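Team,

Forwarding the record for the chain on the shared tracking sheet. I've put the sequence and predicted structure together so nobody has to dig through attachments.
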Amino acid sequence: MRVQIHGSELAAATAAAALSWVGHQVRWVPHASMRWPALQAADWLRREPDLLERLEEGLEQGTLSLANGEGAASGEAIDILWLALSPEQREEADELVAEVAGRQQGALILVNNSTFPVGETERLEARLGGNGRRAVALVDMIEEGRSWASFTRPGRWLLGCDDEHAEAQVRELLRAFNRRRDVMQLMPRRAAELTKLATIGMLATRISYMNEIAGLADSLGVDVEYVRQGMGADSRIGYEYLYPGCGFGGPHFSRDLMRLADVQEASGRQSALLEQVLDINEQKKETLFRKLWTHFHGQLEGRTVAIWGAAFKPGSARIDHAPVLTLLRALWAQGVRVQLHDPAAVPALRAEVGDHPLLSLFDGDPYAACENADALMLVTEWKHYWNPDWSRLAKLLHEKLLLDGRNIYDPTHVASWGLAYRGIGRRAEPGESSTR
């Protein structure tokens, strides 16, 4: 099929790579704000497993072509117009659809893969001008850090579609990724658009609720890990998204949650629950700072803290809405020097905060960030942080304090190395001390 994809989002890049990989003729039009040369150099794209290689393979084989600067105009007819735009590019989507529809002869299917307001797919269909042209909502299910795998081996496709012909065309478009079993979940367009936002809201609610329970566990002297396992064992609840931590972030998760809040407000229905979820998350981003403050009785000026991890999640180079940004502001306000290590997100952090006099950045040896530090904060749970050299760490940290923002360490084991452990609702077993 002849496909034209618009956008510079991860979803657009992944669709361009995957659809051209299976033989569709794909023309990709990156957004003017980030054309192909900038995308090629972007850390977040380069660190996506397999993705850049597949894009370059498609360009080399001729199944993928790039439009840089010439907009949507093309002399060739297309079968599929695929939009993977950011919410801020909604108005541009109107103009783009009208432009393509105006020059296109015959049938056309619009695949709206953008996170726009509920009802937007129907509105875009009206811009197609009729004549059997249809628009469907294909919910963006891409997972950052494993976008190629999540597109080519999907757990499900959530398709909002009210027309049998359009459904058949989309099924044919995605047939190569729907062979093991039928993973296409079909529903009306508005329902699909709301389902995406509602899912994000539910996941965020679970995280924030678990963080509230972790705070209560701290107050009551209970290790929240017992509580998490007990809750997760209940088949009505399960274990997913029940891990307490120092707050969530990310360019898509946070943005989609705000989009749900906007939808609530626009409908005239205020959501006290959603407001609480957002408030709890912002408060949790300061959790490690408050634990540090308590440990040192507010005497923080002149201290040095090491931080492991800045990216909003492991496997990503992005720091959009990441907890580390809130944490840094709180530390600097108290005159704390920060030595931060992250294997991928250092360029993004440097671009965000510039050259701050109280910040040193490291992307090589994580232990270099711990030299002359009083304490270590674990903010992003990259896999190579999971099993550190405890003996080396105990020697490097002057005050022997470890603040675990993701609860990845065993408190009792950490305490056995003579380190003071502070997690999110976690604690070492009573009586444990250094045995080494």
